[in-house]
Amino acid sequence: APRGPSAPARRNPFSSLSNAPQRAAAPQPTAPAGGDPSAAPFWQFLEPACEEKPPERAEPAAGADTLALTKDLHLPTAVPKVPSSPRQEFPADWSIKTRILFMSSQPFTWTEHLKAQEEAQGLAQHCRATEITLPPSVQEPQLSTELRCAFQQSLVYWLHPSLPWLPLFPRIGADRKIAGKACPWAQDEALQQVLRSDWCVSFSSLYRLLRAGLCPYFYVCCPRLTVLFRAAGLGGSAAPSAAIAPTTRGFREALRSEGKVSNGPVQCWSPGASPGSCTARLENPPRRCCSPDTDPGPCREPALSDDDDDDDDDESFSWLEEMGVQDEVKKPDAISIQLRREKQEVRVDHRPESLVLVRGSDTLPLLNLLLNCRSLVAVAGPQAGLPPTLLSPVAFRGGTLHTLKARSARARVPGGSEDVFSLEVLGPVLPHALRALTRLLGPAQRGAFRALLSTHQPSAAFNGCPATQQEAVGPPQDLPACGLDPRTLDQLRQCPTLGKSAIRFLEMKDYAYTWKA
Where is the composition biased (Acidic residues) (predicted)? Predict the structure, then answer.
């Protein structure tokens, strides 16, 4: 059939934008001068997702060593430029990791699709604290049942309370993630009391295990602070210890007013300070805490009693008497002096410098104080009525066994023909788990891999808990039945050396470690 006259072409309403300036293309990674693009280090094309992604991120400074973008990893992460010297072990890191991205030129397929028997054997090895010894190099990781069972064993941790529909770690800054989830206890005081009673039983059980040497450490994660309890012999301390961070002046005043931890020291962290240089008793707190902006030496103002403080105030104005003008100049009254001191103490609130450290027998009164402290539980907001989260590497009463989420992937280096393999581990990665995973990846990946670590930043302050000189020289405590590998225990016995920082980049090359914090 004959066709009618064709309709006039419809004008593109967006044709007027054809002359608009084009958006600049994203810069592409450049290949090394004089070489093939595939020769570029593969780790430059992978980077971890941030724990909390800000809406906008400033571009890194020119010349910074940054990781380029991949398809499913969106934000570049600046890598510190100053690595450590190669060593057989990396330092103990007491911070909690939220995500670890391992990268290697060898595949991670041996971590996938564990058989039911391998999974069951791994859980049994964890519960029995079985020590695994692998050869320096595993030729066929996919066929090594021992390696796959040990991998399952390294992913296990214990948690309380266990509410599958709620993310219970991290708790600091988690209101946005919990908002909108079902919380039937929010308006039910009877249910809140049941949850709290059950939590107190689990907390007390963990502490008894720790004092008996059956639990090496555990964390108490609250909406506003985190507490790390460590058994005697760990962290360079010959006595049990508890570190609390971040804290506020109100919380520190509560510790002092209760009088239950009157012999517990308050540890003011300072970069480069000698061990014990910023230590004071709780009933006589330091008038000024060290901060990274001040001199890295020891605190210059020791803890004094109230009488000594009054004497110092009188002596500070003695020069007026020497000039004969003491009656003409108005001296500040006691209230003004107290307000000035309180202002100085408040400056460290919510910062790593607000770290509180309690040692020895004072950990028991601290336990009782935390059990009866109502402020540990939020009274409003999405976390209202929800007890703090308990994290432990070993089983305890009321604890629930959980495993970290692990997934492997393969990516192609942009502009090259080389494949890059990655293993992503998600969840609260505790210090012993980081050591266990690296101990397995060495033989499985032929002694070469890199790892990018995302840290729960409030917990990084636990790396700034140096032991006093008196404790550091004490005999090492024997913890044979605490559930951890002896080599992991040797690492955790070390005095913290990272300050308020945490390991962000870890590399193994030829079975030797280098790291950046």
Answer: 304-316
Where do the H-state alpha helices sit in 277-362?
306-315, 318-323, 334-346
Using CA atoms, how far apart are residues 146 and 275, in angstroms rounded to an integer? 42
What residues contact residue 490 under an 8 Å CB cut-off, 6+ apart?
none
On the question of a cis peptide bond just before residue 161, with omega within 30 degrees of 0, the verdict is yes
- Closest to 183 measured CA to CA, from 201, 198, 163: 163
Instruction: Write the DSSP string, 224-274.
Output: S-EEEEE-TTSTT-SS-EEEEES--HHHHHHHHHH-TTTTPEEE---TTPP
3-state helix, strand, coil in the chain (%, to 5): 30, 15, 55
What is the token pair recorded at 59? Answer: 């571009």
Q: Which position has the higher pLDDT, 352 or 465?
A: 352
* pLDDT at residue 362 in the model: 86
Burial 177-199 (b: 16+ CB within 10 A, else e): ebeeeebebbeeeeebeebbeeb
Mean confidence (pLDDT) of the chain: 74
Six token digits for residue 354: 């607000």
Q: Distance (Å, rounded) from C-alpha 88 to C-alpha 77?
A: 26
Rounded Cα distance between 215 and 394, Å, is: 6
Which residue stretches of 64-158 are H helix?
116-127, 145-154
Q: At what angle do helices 363-372 and 249-258 cross, to 10 degrees?
A: 110
Q: 105: which DSSP letter? A: S
Q: Enter the DSSP assignment of 515.
A: E
Residue 181 to residue 242: CA distance in whole angstroms: 32
Residue 334: pLDDT band (50, 70, 90) is low
pLDDT above 50 (res 21): no
Measure the CA–CA gap between 443 and 267, rounded to whole angstroms. 40
The Cα–Cα gap between 361 and 382 comes to: 36
* CA atoms of 272 and 426, how far apart (whole Å): 33
Q: What is the pLDDT of residues 94-114, one digit of tens each?
A: 999 999 999 999 999 999 999
Reply yes or no on whether the pLDDT at 310 is more than 50: no
**C-beta neighbour count of 36 within 10 angstroms:** 12
* In the chain, domain spans: 82-160+403-466+478-516, 176-262+346-392
The mean pLDDT of 403-412, rounded to a whole number, is: 91
CA dihedral sign, ordered 137, 139, 141, 143? negative
Q: What is the pLDDT of residue 12?
A: 46
C-beta separation of 133 from 105 below 8 A = no
Output the pLDDT for position 361: 87
Per-residue burial over 342-356, b = 16 or more CB atoms within 10 Å of its CB, e = otherwise:
eeebeebeebbbbbb
Size of the chain, expressed as the number of residues it contains: 517
Which residue's structure tokens are 């006691």?
Answer: 334
Contacts of 27 (CB under 8 A, 6+ apart): none
The pLDDT, as a whole number, for residue 250 is: 81
